[in-house]
Amino acid sequence: MYKRSTILAITILSISLSCGNDDSPTGANSLGEGDDNPVLSTPEEVFDALEKAYNNRDLKEYEALLDENYRFHFVPSDGARPSHHDVWKADEELACTENMFSGVPNPDNKRVRALDLRIVAISTVLDSSDHDGAAPGETWYDVDAEINLIVTVLDSSAGYGGETRNHVVFSGQIFTLRPDPTREGNLLIVEQRDREPITRSRPGAQWSEDAQWGALKAMFRYTQDEGVVSQITELLEEDFKTVYNGKDSLLYATLLDTRYEFENLPADPDNPLSVETWDRGEEMKIADRMFSGWETPEGKQVLDIDLKQTVQSVRASTTEFEDRPDGETWYLANTQVDLVILVRYHDGVDGDGLVNKVIFSGQKYWLRPKEGGAGGWAIRRQVDEDPITKSAAAATQEASWGSVKGLFR
Fold first, then answer.
1. Cβ proximity of 383 and 402 under 8 Å
2. Are strands 300-317 and 277-279 parallel, antiparallel or unpaired?
3. 214 and 303 fall within a common domain
4. Residue 251 CA from chain centroid, whole number
5. 142 pLDDT above the threshold of 80
6. For position 393, what pLDDT does the model report?
């Protein structure tokens, strides 16, 4: 229990709202020109700085507001919080905030396009005792703040162009401020407690939904190891290019996990005989037939392949797999594929001619550490996606990757 003393009611009107912060942080000094770290001696100044750091998506200025012992407390009923985490520390807070501010996609291919934070009102309670870590005679502040936060998220997994949705946080938050132990007169945020939303958004409001601040933070809680990203990028961009353009089945076999799965498009109109998924054995049989120039019973034969694959994002994945060991980190990579497969037809329908099968689409890959501790990464699952554009050039046919593979099953 905190001992409550002098109560000060303060109403704060937002001085500046950043309506033009779409897609990327400004990188500007959000706390005033000519002074990177002004002293924040009152709760009003701290929350004004918090608004500006969020709206400018300025991680450096946000970090300057947090005490090294900062804790964020989730709402107990918040089902979106990370497993086994009711509280997280400053390093996790800064990691998720960096992901939100930078606009990079999360494992579900969602990214923040804009942030708009308003601190509508605060009530401040001075408290000089009963806080862990408080020095004798130190004045700490318990702050009950009413906030209105709109986080605009682009969900690129929702199809070509993606879907934009506003996550609206309108709730009370409890902050605890303490004196900066390294800087006289400066206040830092040492604790934040999330609360349930005060009101719900209007029923039927399009492209918006209510949210808790903690749920949004948890949405962007993931880590990105630059070494891992580099390895996975090389595998998908360079090794795949070598495999397909060089028609190298032996190298391809080294890229696939023993439980590899290829997930086809549902009800693929280009391939009525397609199945939903197939395993590594089926995938290697298809690759051997395509790469060797084997002619199908219907008279189709691959003559040439030109693949370019570009990695768009790599993120630690939370997707559950039955064979995923506890504590093992798997990654999800989103790519853009530009693939042309030259096929000769002898089937009496298309005639004895050549057709370029053009695959221009996104792909998803789940990768896991190679088995046996050999190092490197193996593809556990590949998910095909719809073609992005239709080809109008002569002697070309737009296709999905799965539909072309299906010709050689």
1. no
2. unpaired
3. no
4. 30
5. yes
6. 61
The pLDDT value given to residue 20: 40
Residue whose C-alpha is closest to residue 94's, from 119, 72, 114: 72
Among candidate residues 103, 98, 96, 97, the one with its CA nearest the CA of residue 312? 103
Cβ contact 83:108 at 8 Å: no
The Cβ of residue 198 has, within 10 Å, a number of other Cβ atoms equal to 13
Q: In terms of domains, do 199 and 290 share one? A: no
Report DSSP letters for 349-395, one per residue.
SS-SEEEEEEEEEEEEEEEEEPGGG--SEEEEEEEEEEESS---STT
Which domain-ending residue is among 159, 184, 219? 219
209 and 234 share one domain = no
Helix then strand then coil, in percent of the chain rounded to 5, is 20, 40, 40
What percent of the chain clears pLDDT 90, i.e. is strictly above it?
Answer: 43
Is the Cα torsion angle 33, 37, 43, 49 positive or negative in sign? positive
- pLDDT for 357-380, tens place per residue? 999 999 999 999 998 776 899 999
> Residue 260 carries which side chain, given as an amino acid letter?
Y
Domain that holds residue 294: 226-406
State the pLDDT confidence band at 85, using cuts at 50, 70 and 90. low
Q: What is the DSSP letter of 197?
A: B
Task: Assess whether 132 and 39 both reside in one domain.
Answer: yes
Length of the chain: 409
pLDDT of residue 322: 84
Classify burial at 126, counting beta carbons within 10 Å of its beta carbon; exposed 0-12, middle 13-18, buried 19 or more.
Answer: middle
Distances (CA, A) of 361 to 284, 308, 384: 22, 11, 8
Q: For residues 287 and 254, what is the distance between their CA atoms, to the nearest angstrom? A: 13
Find tokens 């353009």 and name the residue: 245
Choose the weakest-confidence range: 84-93, 152-161, 244-253. 152-161
Pick from 4-13, 201-210, 318-327, 341-350: least confident:
4-13
What's the total number of domains in the chain?
2
